[in-house]
Amino acid sequence: MDLAVVGSIVVGALALIFAFYKSAWISRLNPGNDRMKEISGYIQEGAMAFLSREYKALVVFIIVLFVVVALLINIFTAICFLFGAIFSILAGYFGMKAATKANVRTANAAMESGMTKALNVAFSGGAVMGMCVVGLGILGISVAYIVFGEPNIITGFGLGASSIALFARVGGGIYTKAADVGADLVGKVEAGIPEDDPRNPAVIADNVGDNVGDVAGMGADLFESYVGAIVSGITLGIIAFGKAGASYALAISAVGVLASIIGVYFVRGDKDPQKALNGGTVASSVITLIVSFFLCKVILGTYQPFIAILVGIAVGLIIAKVTEIFTSSDYKYVKGIAQESETGASTNIIGGLSVGMMSTGIPIVVIAIGILVAYYASGGTADTVKGLYGIALAAVGMLSTAGMTIAVDAYGPIADNAGGIAEMCNLPKDVRNITDKLDSVGNTTAAVGKGFAIGSAALTALSLFVAYTQAVGLDGIDLTNPTTIAGLFIGGMLPFLFSAMTMSAVGKAAFSMIEEVRRQFKNMPGIMEGTEKPDYKRCVDISTTAALKEMILPGLLAVAVPVAIGVLLGTEALGGLLAGSLVTGVLMAIFMSNAGGAWDNAKKYIEEGNHGGKGSEAHKAAVTGDTVGDPFKDTSGPSLNILIKLMTIVAVVFAQLFVTYNGILF
Amino acid sequence: MDLAVVGSIVVGALALIFAFYKSAWISRLNPGNDRMKEISGYIQEGAMAFLSREYKALVVFIIVLFVVVALLINIFTAICFLFGAIFSILAGYFGMKAATKANVRTANAAMESGMTKALNVAFSGGAVMGMCVVGLGILGISVAYIVFGEPNIITGFGLGASSIALFARVGGGIYTKAADVGADLVGKVEAGIPEDDPRNPAVIADNVGDNVGDVAGMGADLFESYVGAIVSGITLGIIAFGKAGASYALAISAVGVLASIIGVYFVRGDKDPQKALNGGTVASSVITLIVSFFLCKVILGTYQPFIAILVGIAVGLIIAKVTEIFTSSDYKYVKGIAQESETGASTNIIGGLSVGMMSTGIPIVVIAIGILVAYYASGGTADTVKGLYGIALAAVGMLSTAGMTIAVDAYGPIADNAGGIAEMCNLPKDVRNITDKLDSVGNTTAAVGKGFAIGSAALTALSLFVAYTQAVGLDGIDLTNPTTIAGLFIGGMLPFLFSAMTMSAVGKAAFSMIEEVRRQFKNMPGIMEGTEKPDYKRCVDISTTAALKEMILPGLLAVAVPVAIGVLLGTEALGGLLAGSLVTGVLMAIFMSNAGGAWDNAKKYIEEGNHGGKGSEAHKAAVTGDTVGDPFKDTSGPSLNILIKLMTIVAVVFAQLFVTYNGILF
After folding, report:
1. In this predicted model, what pLDDT tens digit does every residue of B5-26 receive, in sequence order?
2. How far off is chain B from A311, nearest CA to CA, in Å?
3. What is the pTM of this model?
């Protein structure tokens, strides 16, 4: 048995033990006074209720797909699929449980001990999510690799992870934005009460949304990328270097997990939360890089593939920086949108759309260069598969420290929730100041995390695409073949259709929420006077039901279309479809996420007192832009990351089927 | 000498004579009273001033590109390029001259004789544009074919047509929307004066914009598609069937021109303008189809390729119908946006964006099916090049009746202008009623024309793409090659970057226009009282200068990027680039055009009295959407049609260069 594989299993178990230990530590902390316990209890209850209803709804889907895979492919792949799905669910469950415990304890820590302790609690909550994701991911894959040996079977694990991720991202995204838009438009705009005011009936749903969307949804997204990258690394590694290739992909991942655990200890003591978080990220990246460098020579006998890992990390960092430039009010783009808000909502919207489209330029060029360098530096000139393995390694490298990235990312919504709880429980002003500071750092890390998620999705989907061509035995996919072109067109269109569906789902759900909040304010006049409690549950229920209902169709589409195209038009057409959806999916994801981020920060920039400040005409225009940006950046945009990976992994898993029925139409 | 070629030259000359005759007939009509002559004089002057300044600015570009082509490729291609550019300029010049003469005479005919005569004048103005485009197009190509014989050289003519088209579309699009937004936001919204009020300083610029954007810009766009389709038909025809293949492509085009001339005579007498226009379109299509059917057997000895022509026409009609469904207030999508306007501008925007994205679905699937049927029905299974020739024939077939399509399309802005003149000259109310009726029909034809322009651009670019692979001698373009993927990503990104540039150009130009109109209202108080004449020239000048300045960079990008990628990364990467930009270009063009059209008609639907009618909150929200939609549907969206064709034709013309320097980087 291979040392790297055994090591991976041990490291995976270690990560889970670490997560358990952190989680227990959080539980032991003081959750504050009765009011705080009550409010956080509502949030936890709502979040868990959503997860359990979501998982129940997915049981049917999982069973059906299990049977389909078992019958059409084989039972082993179906078993891997089942475990991938269960592990994804577990990661989401544990992570969110920790997050909903950490939020109130962060607020209490801010009150009792100040910034340092509050940062520590919030970040520990995120770290539980991060370690659950990487621990379950690497454990699942390495056990599947030991048991089945065959890469094609292990991709079943990826399919499980991906399909759950899609539903979690889409459902969570619809949930959080319906609640957010509903709470804002009626509470803030119509009733004139502040954000997170306990009199707002949608306020609990809004805080639950932060957890199910930004914690559970994001975690499932990166779980999927993580698993997908390692699976394609194993697949292509075996072809390029034999078992050593697979071992190296696993070894980097295992090193990255250990480095992330060490990195967690770098996040502390400091007074500036941004620097503290950066310290942890840098520490884990540097450790991973140094160890990967030596392991490369030891395991593969050459230093060449190491460059691909370097490329992956560099691409991730550059995209994150570009994301910041286009979405932070420190730079000219967001300032320009704020300026354009002075001539009204339409110029604000045109400005935001234009900035979003513009922001695709550099990331795409960087991804393109990254692909070329990863390929040629890994020896692609002499040996094609070595080059392709390089592309997979770039994805593995980029995601190796995912434990840390997710921890930093999930910290944001926990701090945000802590602020909400402080507001709802009337905690002292300086508590809110601390949580606001933590939250604003969280906004930057969220933007960076989104850039990272997109970059990793692009590289992962691309390596899975390569794994697909190997699985169906294609020597190449010819773009001059009309079926390839037809596939390319249809694939390119899917992200547009998918975004249209998720955006209109948010619109519909937000509409029901607005009606309900208006109804409560009207029928229960005691709410505004503070004598009557709003019916939080009803709002939580509206978001939950809408999210579950609207996630079904896009989810089925993502699984059904690749299978249909592969069978009807053949493997080359399916290759075209995957390439088309990869390109427009990445573009639309960058466009939508960054436009949304830019609108959000343009509004905040005006609220800081620029262009007339809060209540000015410019501010009203900026609020319009921000509301349009909400489903852009938190629902449709991020869901596309998963769409492109899920469709590719469906193609890999069903490869055998397409070889048998290779285009029955032409 | 080939009968089809000679026939094409004769038919081309005939079309030009017909255009001249129609133009002379329009000139002889009564242009109305002195006020009408004065106002229409301003419009004509402004339009011609824009064209002449635009053409002057392009002289440098044309000379530089001429020298580059002559040195890098050969002098014959450079000469063809020169004539393509000159012919495109001439078509735009003659067409717009006729349009600016027909507008005032349409208004006068409505006053003196009523609807029938007014329709006849407006449509005749459009017919001059249509016949100039197809006449100069087919004449230029067939003469070049006789003189040089070599398809590669004739593509130079396409390059000339395409590069002028890009500048005309982008420049015209920026011009018209800057004037429109400026006139609306200050005149209608701030000063509260009606549309086309002569007191509005930007009113002349707005009317000039209809001509330079919707007449000259659209004409140049379809001139380019027309030329591109025939050139690729000749190129692939020669490979598939020898000279007969080229003859058939020319023969269909010549028949289409004749059928369009006949079709013009079907547009008359009737009282319902929509039916009259439909009658002409149907007549010319049916004639073309019947004759092409018999010619297919006569020239090619088989009926198979005829199916491709049928496919091309069917694809065009289906896309046009889908465009109507997504953009007309008779259907649920526009009604939904109007409903969503009740909850404010943000839900209106989300609704419009979502409808635009949704509307890409069916057209893309139809294009994909069209490609497959055209390919396989033309014998692609047995002989690849016959299948590829089929794809080119689909484009040729779709564009064969372009003379008629353009006439119907250009009729819209002429009727719109006639209405503006009626308003500005205080003509009787029933004159305005007639022009309003003609204008509303024009809105439908414009939407249909846009769908047609996108469909033809997709098929033309695809056939040029195929011609490119032949020209550089590629057996295939492998999508698993990392340089192809890098090209695909970069190509896919360009339409996003390009749209961002054109949208922000409109934003900037509109901003200057708003400032100027505000300044005039403030410094010249006599304007509002009617005692002082506004400074129209200043506004015309602002639009002109902004359009000319902002069209340069996007234009250069479209020429420079394909050349750079071809030389640096090689022919396969360039193939990837072209495919990527083709897919996202078509998608973004459909998305932006239809979202813009849907917003426009949602606003009009509310203005008809729904959801509170004019002045309601819903109306204000809908105006925001409409303003965002303006650059979407009239600048960025349509410019993408040209971008994708121009980049492909650049690749074909410089094919030789890429064969010599095939990827100097890798």
Report:
1. 999 999 999 999 999 999 999 9
2. 15
3. 0.94
In-domain check, residue B33: no
Confidence (pLDDT) at A1: 56
Q: What one-character-per-residue DSSP string does B100-140 give?
A: HHHHHHHHHHHHHT-HHHHHHHHHHHHHHHHHHHHHHHHHH
The amino acid occupying position A499 is S
Instruction: Tell me whether residue A665 is in a domain.
Output: no
Supply the pLDDT for residue B200. Answer: 87
Q: What is the pLDDT of residue B491?
A: 97
Tokens 């000015």 sit on residue? A616
**Which runs of E-coded beta strand occur in B525-643?**
none
- For residue A271, what pLDDT is reported? 64
Which residues 190-249 of A have a C-beta within 8 angstroms of B? none
Return the ∠ at Cα B359 (arms to B356 and B360), rounded to 5°.
100
Q: Tokens representing A604?
A: 């905040």
Region of residue A301 (left: phi > 0; alpha: psi -120 to 50; beta: else): left
Is-contact A517 A200, C-beta < 8 A?
Answer: yes
Nearest residue, CB atoms, A580 vs list B486, B583, B631: B583
Question: The tokens 């360009």 sit on which residue?
Answer: B494
Beta bridge partners, A232, equal none
Q: How far is CA B355 from CA A233, A245, A462, A635, B592, in A?
A: 39, 47, 30, 17, 10
List the one residue out of A249, A642, A583 whose CA is nearest residue A453. Answer: A642
* Largest CA-CA distance found in chain B, in angstroms, rounded: 77
For residue B489, how far is the Cα from the chain centroid?
26
Amino acid symbol at A119: L
Q: Can you give the pLDDT at residue A292?
A: 93
Whether B104 contacts B36, CB under 8 Å = yes
Among A481, A484, A628, beta carbon nearest to B349? A628
Helix axes A361-377, B482-523, angle to 10 degrees: 160
CB atoms under 10 Å from CB of A68, counted, come to: 16
Of the candidates A354, A357, A480, which has its C-beta nearest B466's C-beta?
Answer: A480
Q: Say whether residue A557 is in contact with chain B using an 8 A CB cutoff.
A: no
Could you say which residues from 286 to 305 on chain B have a Cβ atom under 8 Å away from some Cβ of chain A?
A: none
CB-based burial label for B57 (10 Å; 0-12, 13-18, 19+): middle
pLDDT tens per residue across span A258-291: 999 999 988 876 668 888 888 888 899 999 999 9
The interface residues of chain A toward chain B in range 460-489, judged by CB-CB distance below 8 A, are 462, 466, 469, 474, 476-489
Q: Which of A474, A490, A493, A501 to mutate to test the interface with B (most CBs of B within 10 A)?
A: A493
DSSP category for residue A193: P
Quote the CA–CA distance of A523 and A103 in Å, as a whole number.
Answer: 32
How many domains are contained in chain B? 1
Domain that holds residue B364: 3-27+38-660
Are the Cβ atoms of B354 and A493 closer than 8 angstroms? no
Distance CA A559, CA A563 (A): 7
DSSP state letter for B188: I
How far does the CA of residue B493 sit from the closest CA of chain A (Å)?
Answer: 6
Is residue A666 in a domain? Answer: no
B425 φ, ψ to 5°?
-100, 10
- Residues A161, A228 contacting (CB under 8 angstroms): yes
DSSP string, A91-121: HHHHHHHHHHHHHHHHHHHHHHT-HHHHHHH
Distance, C-alpha A149 to centroid of its chain? 29
- Within a domain: B32: no
DSSP string, B558-579: HHHHHHHHHHHH-HHHHHHHHH
Residue of chain B whose Cα is closest to the Cα of A470: B480
Strand partners, B505: none
Q: What was the ipTM of the complex prediction?
A: 0.94
User: Which of B350, B354, B476 has the CB atom closest to A480's CB atom?
Assistant: B476
Closest CA to A619 of A629, A640, A604, A639: A604
